[in-house]
Amino acid sequence: MIIVKTREEIELMRQSALVVSKTLGMLAKEVKAGVTTNYLDKLAEAFIRDQGAVPGFLGLYDCPSTLLCSVNDAVVHGLPTDRPLEDGDIVSIDCGALMNGFYGDHAYTFEIGDVAPETKKLIQVTKESLYIGIREFKLGNRVGDVGYAIQNYCEGHGYGVVRELVGHGIGRKMHEDPEMPNYGRRGRGKKFIEGMVVAIEPMINGGTHRVKQLKDGWTIVTKDGQPSVHFEHDIALLDGKPEILSTFAYVHQALGIESNEEDEFRQDALVL
Ligand code: MG
Ligand code: MG
Asked: Which residues sit with Cβ closer than 5 angstroms to ligand 2, an ion?
C-alpha cells in the first residue's frame, strides 16, 4: 500500500534528504586516490550525527556501515573496506539518514582522477537517465512509465539495466511501496498518487545486466566485470508534478560543476 504524505511531512522528508545531500557534498571533497572507503564511512557517520540525524543504513537489515560504497564493477551495497581508492576508479556512494522520523536515501557516483572515457560516458548516461525517469513521475502515469523511460534510454546506449535491485517508496520506513524498477512497460504497474514520495535510482552496467553477490553477503557486482553506475534522488509528487527533495548541488559545488539539471523539478529555488 502506498503511504501518502502531507505537505508538512514532505517538508520533514526534504530535511532528511538534505542531510544526505550535505553528507555527499562533504564526501565529494574527500573522495580521492589513497583514501579508503572505511575512512569515508567514519567521516559520514560523524557528519550525519552532527546534524542531529542518525545514519539510515547502519543496523538496517543488519547493515554494518553508514555508507554503501560500490567501486568499479560493484553495482550497489558495497561494504566499506580498507582498500585505498586508486586513480581511474569510480565509486558509487549511497547514503541514508533518519531525522524527525523520516528517511532520506540518495546516491552519487564519483570519479577518482583520470577515468576511462567509456566509463565517463556510462556515468553521464546513467545520470541523464535518472532525470528522464523523474520526468515520468507525474500524475496520470504509472510505475512502468518511469521504468520504461530509464530502460529505453540506457539500453539505447548499449548498457545493461540491473533487474534484481529497484527503487522504492520512502517515508517513515526506508523501503515502502511501490517498488520502482528501472525497467518496465508503459502504462503498467501502480498508479502514481499525489503526496507519495519515492527514491528513483538507476543502477546501470557497462555490459550485461546480470549481477552476482560477493561472499561478504552484501556487495553486488556485475557478472562480466564491467563497471556499474548508480545515482539516486528522493522525489515527492506535489501538485501533480515531481518535486526533488534531495540535491546534488552540494556535490557540484564541491567539485566545481555547473549544473541546472534539477531546476525543472523544484518549485522554489534552492538556497545552499
Ligand atoms: Mg540509496
Ligand atoms: Mg534507495
From this structure: 105, 199
